[in-house]
TrEMBL record:
Taxonomic lineage: Bacteria, Pseudomonadati, Pseudomonadota, Betaproteobacteria, Burkholderiales
UniProt-listed Pfam families: Aminotran_1_2 (PF00155)
Name this protein carries in UniProt: alanine transaminase
InterPro entries named in the record: Ala_Aminotransferase (IPR051926), Aminotransferase_I/II_large (IPR004839), PyrdxlP-dep_Trfase (IPR015424), PyrdxlP-dep_Trfase_major (IPR015421), PyrdxlP-dep_Trfase_small (IPR015422)
Cofactor(s) required, per the database record: pyridoxal 5'-phosphate
PANTHER family reported for this sequence: GLUTAMATE-PYRUVATE AMINOTRANSFERASE ALAA
Family: Belongs to the class-I pyridoxal-phosphate-dependent aminotransferase family.
Molecular functions (GO terms): L-alanine:2-oxoglutarate aminotransferase activity; pyridoxal phosphate binding
Segments forming a coiled coil: none
Leading EC class: transferase
Keywords in alphabetical order: Aminotransferase, Pyridoxal phosphate, Transferase
Organism from which the protein derives: Noviherbaspirillum humi
Enzyme Commission number(s) from the entry: 2.6.1.2
Start and end residues of each Aminotransferase class I/classII large domain: 41-402
């Protein structure tokens, strides 16, 4: 009979996760949760979760979900219900994306699930995907998790955060399979002109790259800006366009997103078969959220009231930009879209070596939660991202605390 103490084997996470991170919900957030449990009130500027800031979904899509709950208990088609996919097809026509049929549309548990699905179906070990820097970090994580290698191309802050075409050219190799285009952009709020999108399409054409287009903020536009879907610019390149209800329709928790395959599909039959296989393996996306899509896309577009003159999002964007850029040593390209700002801290005034530690110190001293710039795969510890979703009073308080923290930082480092 064994009488000694059993040796317990440590259980390790998969090695596939070695290069995977998602700092929007990372270590600094865990510290914030601990502080909340200790009784501290934290102002959270870290995540675009609209509901917690009083941005409610349109009443009509809530109503449609409720009245259809009795029909939502069974599995749907693995790609999604017919009616919402038909509505998405009509939306692609509005966006001038040609040649999209019902079978080209996949509904997912948010666009996030479909990002991972798109990469899992495509990548083999060593395959490279061009991803912007800064990026929405799920893209980098999905490439790594799928066995690929994310290669970051630079977006140029001095040029309104537009992708640097020459940098993209330098980073294309025989292993490059795809390029990710986040437009409108998270975290910078940049919106890309048609001329730039055409340049990216031409590179994809020359090098036979798949274009993954993240367009989740395509209606969250300011100052009469217009969005162009990159997939509308060519039919001889393969595009996967991702969108959903989370942001434009303030429905993050509904987890209702979609992916549209368009363009050069003839030579992608095997890849599309892989997408179909993965869609079937997860059985289906959640059914209640699917029932919100048709009404959302076809109903009154209340997002226009929020981003237009006098709209809450527009006013809060302008307020946040003014308050941030009034802080000595802080500059920020004014966003044309989305819900975020990506301000820069002048390294001569703020000699930051570790921007995650910087975020920790801001949280500890002022109870404000941000995400450090390197969490978005930016190349230097000199940026951070904030959301401008809190109401004007809370936003003023939060940025006032950031200003106070930065003043103390300048004093400590003798850079006043």
């Amino acid at each position: 009979m064994f009488t000694g103490e059993a040796r317990v084997r440590s259980i390790q996470k998969s090695k596939k996760l070695a290069d995977v991170c998602y700092d929007i919900r990372g270590p600094v957030l865990e510290k914030a949760k601990q502080m909340e449990e200790e009784g501290h009130k934290i102002i959270k500027l870290n995540i675009g979760n609209l509901a917690v800031f009083g941005f409610d979904p349109p009443d009509e899509i809530v109503h449609d979900m409720i009245i259809n709950m009795g029909n939502a208990s069974g599995y749907t088609d693995s790609k999604g219900l017919f009616a919402p996919r038909k509505a998405i097809m009509h939306y692609t026509q509005e966006k001038r994306i040609a040649g999209v049929g019902i079978d080209d549309i996949f509904i997912g548990n948010g666009a996030s699930e479909l990002i991972v699905m798109g990469m899992n179906a495509l990548l083999n070990s060593g395959d490279e995907v061009l991803v912007p820097a800064p990026d929405y970090p799920l893209w980098t994580a999905a490439v790594s998790l799928s066995g690929g290698k994310p290669v970051h191309y630079i977006c140029d802050e001095a040029a309104d955060w537009y992708p640097d075409i020459e940098d993209i050219k330098r980073k294309i190799t025989p292993h490059t399979k795809a390029i990710v285009v986040i437009n409108p952009n998270n975290p910078t709020g940049a919106l890309y002109p048609v001329s730039l999108l055409n340049e990216i399409v031409e590179l994809a054409r020359q090098h036979q790259l798949i274009v993954f287009a993240d367009e989740i903020y395509d209606k969250t536009l300011y100052d009469d800006a217009e969005h162009t879907s990159i997939a509308s610019l060519a039919d001889d390149v393969l595009f996967l366009t991702l969108n959903g209800l989370s942001k434009n329709y303030r429905s993050c928790g509904y987890r209702a997103g979609w992916m549209v395959v368009s363009g050069e599909k003839r030579h992608a039959k095997d890849y599309i078969e892989g997408l179909n296989m993965l869609a079937s393996m997860r059985l289906c996306a959640n059914a209640p959220g699917q029932y919100a899509i048709q009404t959302a896309l076809g109903g009154y577009q209340s997002i226009n009231d929020l981003v237009g003159p006098g709209g809450r999002l527009l006013k809060q964007r302008d307020l946040a930009h003014s308050l941030l850029t009034d802080i000595p040593g802080v500059s920020c390209v004014k966003p044309k879209s989305a819900l975020y700002m990506f301000p820069r801290l002048d390294p001569k005034i703020y000699p930051i070596q570790d921007d995650q530690q910087f975020a920790y110190e801001l949280l500890a001293e002022e109870k404000v939660l941000i995400v450090q710039g390197t969490g978005f795969n930016w190349v230097a510890p000199d940026h951070f991202r904030v959301v401008f979703l809190p109401n004007s009073d809370d936003l003023t308080e939060a940025i006032g605390r950031i200003a106070r923290f930065l003043e103390h930082y300048r004093r400590r480092h003798g850079t006043l």
